[in-house]
């Protein structure tokens, strides 16, 4: 009887041990399945390619604007001191273009942006924005068009289409991007010229075109459907106002909406969708502070029904991200970026920010090139699927991002 009980007890102990061992094995298997994906054996074939940096050409002096000639690999590059070049991005050949208008090269002024007629070369118009002076030496933002003679390497028939009023002393806040909209109209951003009078500010004075986005026909005429053409208190050219210094502008390829990047004061940098007739608040409503303080400037845009809210902003205390040129990525080298917004960082080391876009929402996905210590002035999505970058420096290269292994 005692031996039988002992044998039964031993059997039960062995059985329990076996069950515990089995349970531990099952738990280990479950834990293995729950390992982070990075620790699992994976097939890397479908992972997105990491961008690599290639030099396209060298020797540029403060490049400012980039625009491809439609249907080609020819990239037009403006340089702040007044030079204009066309770069063959396949071969790296650089052709300097003569006949550029005289510019006021000082401070933030000079030869600024460039856009190309969408039907180029028929017609063969380029559109240029630049700072130029009057007889008294005051300056303002200008828009001109000219015919690009590639064979002759020069501009012909240069014609000033628009001059922002009034001229001002000082050498800052000219804007100044130009794009051709889906309606074939020209949109130009004009800076506030650095005015610090918050009580009587030109960005809220709609009798002037400072601190605005203007909309013009391709020949410089004022479109009949501009939002304020019937309002005698507002300059007919104005499409939107209340801007500080918008240095990036691009058309969303799917929606046709006009997006802008804009510099704030102490932080307060913004990304906006520009609406006809919209007031963007500066300086009555802003997300930044006065320089060197934590004192807000005006109201928060969300508190004002009469102000168009930014899509994304860096408010005071965040360190900001002074944004320059922007583009929507439409290439095939980085499939995960398709339709994303790329935003240039104008402070050395800020890099190139990528935002995913869903309708009127933009979410920060990542920031690239933070280790390069570059001031990035402009960015352009190329026909080859690469991303072209203008580095704001003297004797600097034109570079592009390509998928590693391309």
Would you give an account of this structure?
The protein is mainly β and 406 residues long. It has a single domain, classed as Neuraminidase (6 Propeller), CATH 2.120.10.30. The chain has 1 helix and 26 strands. It has one helix at 2-33, and strands spanning 51-60, 63-68, 74-79, 84-88, 94-97, 111-116, 125-133, 139-149, 154-163, 175-180, 186-190, 212-216, 238-241, 246-251, 258-262, 269-274, 285-289, 296-298, 312-314, 323-328, 341-345, 352-358, 361-368, 376-381, 387-391, 396-403. The strands form 7 sheets. The chain has a 4-stranded antiparallel beta sheet, with no helix packed on it. It has a 4-stranded antiparallel beta sheet with strand order 2-3-4-5, with no helix packed on it. A 4-stranded antiparallel beta sheet has the order 6-7-8-9, with no helix packed on it. It is globular. The termini are far apart. 44% of the residues are buried. Mean pLDDT is 89; it is low at 1-46.
Give the SSE layout:
Elements: H1 2-33, E1 51-60, E2 63-68, E3 74-79, E4 84-88, E5 94-97, E6 111-116, E7 125-133, E8 139-149, E9 154-163, E10 175-180, E11 186-190, E12 212-216, E13 238-241, E14 246-251, E15 258-262, E16 269-274, E17 285-289, E18 296-298, E19 312-314, E20 323-328, E21 341-345, E22 352-358, E23 361-368, E24 376-381, E25 387-391, E26 396-403
Antiparallel strand pairs: 1-26, 2-3, 3-4, 4-5, 6-7, 7-8, 8-9, 10-11, 11-12, 12-13, 14-15, 15-16, 16-19, 17-18, 20-21, 21-22, 22-23, 24-25, 25-26
């Amino acid at each position: 009887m005692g031996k039988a009980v002992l044998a039964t007890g031993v059997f039960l102990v062995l059985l329990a041990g076996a069950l515990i061992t089995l349970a531990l094995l099952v738990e280990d298997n479950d834990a293995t399945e729950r390992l982070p994906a990075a620790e699992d054996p994976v097939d890397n074939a479908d992972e997105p390619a990491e961008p690599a940096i290639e030099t396209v050409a060298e020797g540029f002096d403060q490049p400012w604007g980039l625009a491809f000639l439609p249907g080609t690999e020819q990239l037009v590059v403006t340089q702040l001191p007044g030079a204009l070049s066309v770069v063959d991005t396949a071969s790296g050949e650089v052709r300097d273009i003569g006949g550029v208008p005289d510019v006021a090269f000082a401070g933030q002024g000079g030869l600024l942006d460039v856009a190309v007629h969408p039907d180029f070369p028929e017609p063969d118009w380029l559109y240029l924005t630049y700072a130029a002076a009057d007889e008294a030496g005051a300056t303002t933002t200008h828009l001109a068009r000219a015919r690009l003679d590639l064979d002759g390497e020069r501009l012909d028939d240069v014609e000033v289409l628009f001059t922002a009023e009034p001229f001002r002393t000082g050498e800052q806040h000219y804007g100044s991007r130009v794009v051709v909209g889906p309606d074939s109209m020209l949109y130009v951003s004009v800076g506030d010229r650095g005015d610090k009078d918050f009580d009587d500010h030109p960005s809220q004075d709609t009798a002037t075109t400072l601190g605005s986005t203007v909309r013009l026909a391709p020949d410089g005429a004022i479109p009949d459907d501009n939002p304020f053409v019937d309002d005698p208190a507002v300059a007919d050219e104005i499409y939107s106002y209340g801007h500080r210094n918008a240095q990036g502008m691009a058309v969303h390829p799917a929606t046709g909406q006009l997006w802008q990047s804009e510099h704030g004061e102490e932080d307060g940098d913004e990304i906006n969708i520009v609406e006809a007739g919209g007031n963007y608040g500066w300086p009555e409503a802003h997300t930044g502070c006065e320089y060197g303080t934590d004192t807000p400037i005006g109201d928060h845009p969300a508190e004002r029904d009469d102000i168009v809210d930014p899509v994304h902003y860096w408010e005071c205390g965040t360190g900001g991200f002074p944004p320059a040129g922007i583009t929507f990525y439409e290439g095939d080298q980085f499939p995960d970026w398709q339709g994303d917004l790329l935003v240039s960082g104008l402070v050395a080391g800020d890099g190139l920010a990528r935002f995913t876009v869903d309708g009127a929402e933009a979410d920060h996905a990542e920031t690239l090139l933070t280790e390069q210590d570059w001031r990035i002035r402009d960015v352009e999505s190329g026909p080859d699927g690469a991303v072209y970058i203008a580095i704001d420096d003297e004797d600097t290269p034109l570079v592009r991002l390509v998928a590693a292994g391309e």
